Amino acid sequence: MKYLLITLGHGSSAIYIDDDKKTVIGYEQERLSGIKSDSQFPKDAINEIINNVGYSEMKGCYVYISHWFNHQYSSADILYNKYMQKIDVMNLKELSCGNIVQVNKLFSHHDAHAYSALSFLCYNAPEYTEETYTIIADGFGNNEEVLSIYKSEAHDTLNPKLVLRVSDYRASLGLMYQYATSFCGMKENQDEYKFLGYESHTDEVLSLEMIDTLDFYVEDNVKALESFVHKEMLKKPEDRTVCKECNPDIAINTRALGDVRMHWYAVFKELIDATGIDKNDAFKVRCVVAYFIQQSIEIFFMRLIKEFNMENICLAGGCFYNVKLNNKILNSITGKLCIMPLAGDQGAAIGMYTAFSGNVFNFGNLCFGKRRLYGIEKYERDNIKVVSIKAPSVIHSIAKDICDGNIVNIVRENMEFGPRALCSTSSLFLPTTENVARNNLMNRRNEVMPCAPVILSENVQYMFNFKEFSRVIGSSKYMICTFNYTKPYSKQYGGVMHKKPLENVYTGRPQVIESEYYAGNENDFMLRLLTTIEYICDAKCLVNTSFNAHGRPIVFDTMDIIHNFNFQCEHSPSDKQPILYIIKD
Prior knowledge:
Blueprint: E1 2-7, E2 13-18, E3 23-28, H1 29-33, H2 43-53, H3 55-58, E4 62-66, H4 86-96, E5 100-102, H5 109-124, E6 132-137, E7 145-152, E8 161-167, H6 173-183, H7 194-199, H8 202-205, H9 208-233, H10 254-275, H11 282-308, E9 313-316, H12 323-330, E10 337-339, H13 348-357, E11 369-370, E12 384-388, H14 394-403, E13 408-412, E14 414-415, E15 425-429, H15 433-442, E16 452-456, H16 460-463, H17 466-469, E17 483-484, E18 498-499, E19 506-508, E20 511-513, H18 515-518, H19 525-537, E21 541-546, H20 558-570, E22 579-584
Parallel strand pairs: 1-4, 4-5, 6-9, 9-10, 12-22, 13-22, 16-20
Antiparallel strand pairs: 1-2, 2-3, 6-7, 7-8, 11-14, 13-15, 15-21, 16-21, 17-19, 18-19
Helix pairs in contact: 5-13, 6-10, 6-11, 9-11, 10-11, 14-19
């Protein structure tokens, strides 16, 4: 069977699957349009898949479309809007011979998220048989769904039953985060993750009296959110599957969204007034708002988990890109935690594939997209090197450049799907505080942005709390959960160590390279590189951060690569230029 999985709206994307040939190829629209967080119909992504696979080969595939609109109609009743126009539907009908399936009233956007998370769990732990709760939290899904909880009985993981659904924009943790971002002068759906950086400065900016004041507002906020949950819990089980009825003639209730934005702006303004900080001091304002929203979501989820007595949990939805929240959840349960690394909407259509086909998706290493590297050789110069992974000395050359203190950019032929650079489009360097500052400068990133380590699995025990690490299924390979360091803070590793506010505890969100998984296969590049670097200079990990200037998507083709590298070089100290390796596998 052949499938084309499409996600519409924010995070628009397309993935093609051929079960017989074990083929998976996919792109996010932003990679090809060059527009960060692009929400237009993913026609460029679809066309690039066709370019690689062939139109005739894809003909007759099943098309699954996940979206978060109010209507949830069949393909015969599609409501055209700015996210999907009539010509797009006509083209899909021609390609699929009419085999188009959308989310409908019996299967929502949150259902798609839930099945994607459980598919990821089953992919990484095929023998898993425990009772498991799946939590979905994002901005919103179909008919204003904002929070859903499912329960899978032991030995029946891929058959989740809905036990709670909250459908109301006012209860959306994702919208709270989104509107906090714009209130603080940052870009919605792009800069939310910066709040974790600002929150880490809480004890530098805020007095204990200010924190006490904020805690009062946090408690009120959590209680307000809990009231939505408790209202839903009073419903009969058979009524919980019914989504809130919304106007089916509009894709999204923009008036209601505007009201929610105004509500949160008023709350954030009240926080600033109550703490007495200078409202024109952008850094302090962001620290105040960061503390409020982070404490709100952490406390809310801790109480929710206790309410349902959860032991093993799966997570999906944009809220769980919050890596510190994920660690808090991990330490609130005694069982296993699995976080879908494609927690945002780009991963939702995978859940439709699993639910309707009954198959577990082949996640592999998430590097689904083939790049266009035409003519890359003509750009070779001293600090741009086009090499083959099979060349005998290439690993040692890259390792030596990194150990010499250089920032080394790695671009390989298959690009990552999702928001994380997974060493196919990465800047790699020794994890010193100085190197992180230099990399931030050359990419025009501000200093609050956290960096993550890439580390061999056998070195985790030297750096992190291994008991935490051992209870996470699959997700530790994708930089989506923080772990507490057991290693004391030092400038040698300071670039990947981030202090928890009000605590003398440092955390990191590693990409763990599992030696047993990678050894001997085509993905063992990082295994060999990290092993060589440790032999040369005894570094237990490296910084892994995306190779792209701030505000730009991960690079796709030759000109993207060269333009981004030239940008780096223009903003780097003249005596310490970066290095770029294009690795043709």
